[in-house]
Specification:
With 78 residues, the protein is mainly beta. A hairpin with a 2-residue loop joins strand 4 and strand 5.
Amino acid sequence: MTDGNSAVVGCNVVLANMASGAQLTYQLVNAAEARPGTGRLSIESPVGQAIVGRRVGEEVEVKAPSGIVRFRIERIET
């Protein structure tokens, strides 16, 4: 259960890429429900693991093939 302020399975999360400023919106789902390209992000993915349990305003770092990518959590909708 969530208090509405932290990222959990089923919620929608808006992330800002700190380098580009681009905003990305994802729905956090379990691995079986994840669908690449549809905004359904597995909590087992690197980005999913980084944001689960985090709150609005927090910044996370994700290790990607191109290097470290930093995101800020802009909004969480339950």
